[in-house]
Design goal:
Order of helices and strands of chain A: EEEEEEEEEEE
Helix content of chain A: under 10%
Radius of gyration of chain A: 14 Å
Distance between the termini of chain A: 37 Å
Number of helices of chain B: 0
Oligomer: heterodimer
Chain lengths: 113, 113
């Protein structure tokens, strides 16, 4: 099983749609979880940290389910500018380290007019 | 405040050569991590340094080495370049390392011919 797995995508949605991304992780000892967005040929930019209680930032909502070992990102009222690749990242690995981020492959989102 | 800076932005090398990539973290951050990202994949962890000490190393050959300087800037060195080393090399800055939020620089795009 891969350490971090994301929906393969790509997702094509119309403006105004709600879109959800899911990510599962294998290391039950992981403590920190993040969503990044990455525009084409640019660096990943931190979008949100994911907290146990769930958190919201405007149109973006992130949730963590420790029992099932998955995190999710919900984007409401999607905009053209939301088009990007969304990467989930989890700290730690199967070897017990907590200093590295392990990333999923990313899911490409295209929001269409 | 300046974000994470990396140099050079682009680099073309031939097989067998050596390359040095540089990174300056966000002011006040003491930890630098290096990642390699190939097309279609998420970033893969190479090293993390904190207070000039190597905290961890990913699954990369000994041709890859790094160091951190007293001002917290860092260098990544790759010897005996292979075609497969062509990638975007990303530096990430964090306050304390570990499970902290990591902020990426713009990356160095390395092409090996």
């Amino acid at each position: 099983r891969k350490e971090v797995e994301q929906d393969p995508g790509p997702f094509n949605v119309p403006e105004g749609a709600t879109v959800a991304f899911n990510c599962t992780y294998s290391n039950s000892a992981s403590q920190s979880f993040f969503w990044y967005r990455q525009d084409c040929r640019k660096e990943p930019k931190l979008l949100m940290s994911v907290y146990s209680s769930g958190n919201e930032d405007g149109r973006f909502t992130a949730q963590l389910n420790r029992a099932s070992q998955y995190i999710s990102l919900l984007i409401r009222d999607s905009k053209l500018s939301d088009s990007a690749t969304y990467l989930c990242a989890v700290n730690g690995d199967s070897g017990g380290s907590n200093y590295k981020l392990t990333f999923g492959k990313g899911t490409l989102l295209t929001v269409n007019p | 405040d300046a974000g994470v800076t990396q140099s050079p932005t682009h680099l073309i090398k031939t097989r067998g050569q050596h390359v040095t990539l540089r990174c300056s973290p966000i002011s006040g951050h003491k930890s630098v991590s290096w990642y390699q990202q190939v097309l279609g994949q998420g970033p893969q962890f190479i090293f993390q340094y904190y207070e000039k000490e190597e905290r961890g190393r990913g699954n990369f050959p000994d041709r890859f080495s790094a160091r951190q300087f007293p001002n917290y800037s860092s260098e990544l060195n790759v010897n005996a370049l292979l075609l497969g080393d062509s990638a975007l090399y990303l530096c990430a800055s964090s306050s304390l390392g570990g499970g902290d939020e990591q902020y990426f620089g713009p990356g160095t795009r390395l092409t090996v011919t």
